[in-house]
Design a protein that fits this description.
With 166 residues, the protein is an alpha+beta fold. The chain contains 4 helices and 8 strands, in the order ββααββββββαα. A hairpin with a 2-residue loop joins strand 5 and strand 6.
């Protein structure tokens, strides 16, 4: 039986999330790599007061973001049209192999499957305690946050489509 929409534990501090969307990979990547004001409307764990785009290239960026007293500097790489890799380069709690990998699979019916692997390796006591959360009560929180981000990017895309048609 296929595990649709439910997080699956892969290993220590690692969780798999899945969503199917009407968005194209390019549309989701556009939202994922929009580091402007209002990002928290798309990604709830990226509060505007923490957000700082440190450097941006054509298909990569270094961005500091966070929320609730937790921040991390991430290197975003979207050079592969079917995959975006976010690598944690600095953080007040995360270290080691921490980051996110988004993989996009276009389906024949026009939808896109988005699979995300989130890795959390704590670099201090707070990080190790928070790293335990995805393996316990936090799985549903991460799943809901991902689901909300997909819905928010879908809504933004629809609003842009309607505005362009007007």
């Amino acid at each position: 039986m296929k595990n649709r929409g439910r997080p699956k534990l892969l290993g220590v501090g690692e969780i798999h999330l899945h969503q199917t969307t009407t968005l194209t990979p390019e549309q989701y990547v556009s939202g994922l790599t929009d580091f402007g004001p209002g990002r928290s409307k798309l990604f709830g764990n990226s509060a505007d007061e923490y957000l700082k785009e440190d450097r941006r290239g054509r298909s990569e960026a270094d961005v500091t973001e966070g929320a609730g007293g937790i921040w991390e500097r991430l290197h975003y790489d979207w050079s592969d049209p079917n995959r975006v890799v976010l690598t944690t380069t600095d953080s007040n709690v995360w270290g080691g192999a921490s980051g996110h990998t988004y993989t996009f699979t276009r389906q024949p019916n026009g939808t896109t499957d988005i699979d995300v692997i989130v890795v959390r390796e704590g670099k201090n006591l707070k990080g190790r305690m928070l790293g335990f959360v995805p393996r316990t009560i936090g799985r549903s929180v991460l799943e809901k946050a991902f689901e909300n981000s997909v819905k928010a990017v879908e809504a933004r895309n629809e609003a842009e489509r309607l505005e362009a048609a007007a």
